[in-house]
Amino acid sequence: MRFKEWLGDAKQRLMTNIANRTFKKNPGLLDRLAIRFLRSSIGEVPHDPELDHPEN
Amino acid sequence: MASAKPTDNKNTYSVCTICDIGCQLRAETEDGKLKRMIAHDNPALARNVCYKGTAAAHIHNHVDRLTRPLKRVGERGEDKWEEISYEQAMDEIAERLKKVVDQYGPESMAVSTSGWNTQTTHSMDRRFMNALGTPNYISGVSLCAGNTAAVNKMTYGWFPFADISNSQCIVLFGHNPRKHSWTPIFNMINAARANGAKVIVLDPRVSDQAEVADLHLSLRSGTDAAMCFGWLNVIINEKLYDKDFVAEYTVGFDELCERVNDYPLERVAEITGVDAELIAESARMYATAESACIPWTPITDMQISSTSAIRLQSILRALTGNIDIPGGDVFGGFDPNYIPESKLGNHEMLSAEQKAKQLGSDAHPAYTYRAQEMLSEHTERVYGYAYADIVMGCYMANPSATFRAMATEKPYPVKAFFVLGNNALLSYPNQHQILKGMMNQDLIVAHEIFMTPTAMLADYVLPGDVFSERNHIADNWNWKLGLTVSQKAVEPPAEASSTFQFWHDLAHRMGFADLFPWQTIEDMLDHRLSPSGKTFEQFSNENYMYIQPPEYRKYRQTGFATPSGKVELKSSVLGELGFDPLPYYREGPAVSEDYPYYVFTGVREDAFFQTGQRQVKVLRDRMPSPKLFMHPVDAERQGIIDHDWVKLQTETGEVTAKVLIQDSMKQGHIRVPHGWWYPEMRGEAKLAGAFISSDAVLCPDAPEYLDYEQGIPHFKGFPGRIVKLNEPPAGMSEQVLAG
Ligand code: SF4
Description:
The structure holds two protein chains of two kinds.
Chain A: H1 2-22, H2 29-42
Helix pairs in contact in A: 1-2
Chain B: E1 13-15, E2 24-30, E3 33-38, H1 56-60, E4 70-72, E5 81-83, H2 86-104, E6 109-113, H3 115-118, H4 124-132, E7 137-139, H5 146-156, E8 161-162, E9 169-173, H6 183-194, E10 198-202, H7 208-211, E11 215-217, H8 224-237, H9 243-249, E12 250-251, H10 253-260, H11 265-272, H12 276-288, H13 306-319, E13 329-330, H14 341-344, H15 352-355, H16 369-372, H17 376-383, H18 399-408, E14 416-420, H19 431-439, E15 443-448, E16 460-463, E17 472-474, E18 483-486, H20 499-509, H21 521-529, H22 536-542, E19 545-546, H23 555-558, E20 567-568, H24 572-576, E21 597-603, H25 617-620, E22 627-630, H26 632-638, E23 645-649, E24 654-661, E25 669-673, E26 716-724, H27 734-738
Parallel strand pairs in B: 6-7, 6-14, 9-10, 10-11, 12-20, 14-15, 15-16, 21-25, 22-24
Antiparallel strand pairs in B: 1-2, 2-3, 4-5, 4-16, 8-13, 17-18, 18-19, 21-26, 23-24, 23-26
Helix pairs in contact in B: 2-20, 5-13, 8-11, 8-12, 8-13, 18-19
Bound molecules: iron/sulfur cluster.
Residues 16, 18-19, 21-23, 49-50, 52-53, 183 of chain B line the site of iron/sulfur cluster.
């Protein structure tokens, strides 16, 4: 039970560390790998026309 | 005292503060003006944007933005002004505040604010108030999240944030996150659902979330506490609770069981109007999920049994072992990299004598100093600092008691009212009393980005800045760990400035300069980031966000920040204050022949946040007029058809609006949108139509309508009636009539 807990907790910490790498302004090699991993798992988010406004 | 220049257009990330969720967006500028606000380029954050956020340029560049300080020249509320310089305004405000304090004492100053709107105050308001000696701080968070934070602390010492994305079961008590309201929460729910999470919705309406829920319980409005008892009944009697956790980490289980037995399923079914079998099925679904969370909900915040209902939700989290685990409800604690506002507020500085004067703390102490300081030594033991002002909601005066003191001068006079980023007149119950209180002031100062009905009642109106015009690091007010950079993209117009600047400049004029050594927001951000070893410039050059890696089940090392060190199913704090230490259900005011409908107010519409943005064309076009929702059967009985104008009346006031007939409404219930006024009626109708359609006139704040422990009103299910109008109200614009 404790091992399962440890594994679940560790997974969340790892995911947070990966996310933090994708939040860098000047990404290094590992950061770029993290961004690539994110893009491959989430994909590109298409533009949503509901967000558009006319120019007043 | 020049503040930092706007950042280069490239890589400019700003935290949207149009609503309270804080999405990080990207700013595009042209010729020193905000051109567009667009979605994030990080795919994990790109969906966190709604059409209010992308309307930011229309708001920030709006022709009606306040840009110069205004001084009242007509009668109070007449909306007649002269422009004066910022220096003159601040000098006169300080002089007049000193006069009020000399005559009536420091507690005669009250401050009302919405931290969501002002953002960069860095708790300088509380610091100023604590230096001056007044405890009378009120905020919209007394009805929304802040009060929940304070009540959660009584049960287990902190206010957890639901780890929705990783959860296997999500319980929404009336909460209805949508694509354009609470957008990131909506996205988290969708992500969890895609991973197989179940969603249980408890809502009188068939809300957007209810439509796609695994289970929908259409309970009667205002009965959340009773429903929680129903769930506990099933969970305890069917032994679905986490026995090890209960044995090791809770106190009061036996007493709780006795109380739960007062609420057999049949009784709960009768109170809530939900079938007993469905209650049982949903309780089992929640309790047996591998992980489950009950995210904060604005609905439970605003009921006559709110304190009990909030505590019951905390108790459900604890009994099922869903506290501080992945996918459950997680305790953040203070961010190790950032000095919290709780500390900057300097709450130690206010004397016990002044704290005891906090309005409303005698009758309804739950979120006041009186109750919250009973937790101080335990908060210090577990979290390292005594004052945890989570979501700014843990050391507040009671709004109704404050406006009563402003109006009646009892128990003592309140004669100076400062209102920042907060349209107070329309934001608390009993709008008539608020007006009376404001009309009885010697000094009112408003700090706003647009003229509002509240600001129209002021002596001075100072122009505020907006999020694209200032640097900031958002820290979720200690609710959730993480630091989000917000960069200044453009300069504020003319003399518009931040609330940080306001309190700094007032403090220097009032003799508190040594307590306010930071000259600029950037100085403050450097100070706050000092535990990280970085300056704002360094931090924001390196990251646009940083999330502290989570630590779970921290209580195993520290215990809980309560007097017993455990989860207090039976609250020692409430007991000591003379309240029932166990949760209970209390019936709200009953409907009658005269007032046959259950009215629920405070409902958020996609196009607006609270009382804001009604003057922004691109948003108003999407929602031109206020709409009451009714069930077809009720409408037919009243002889009402879609888009008819009606008056919704209660014992204390009436709201004029159009009707939308919706199958999704629960029969016998009427839903009222929040915060309507008509900026286009400025100069024609009293206070720009602030008394035509505002839901704040409807709900009384007499004792029988208030939650005992917090003194917050029963916004969710009070009696009202509908009167059909033969003609629309006079003076409405064509857009309102047509929309
Ligand atoms: S949900 Fe919309 S208004 Fe709210 S912070 Fe996000 S973008 Fe801004």
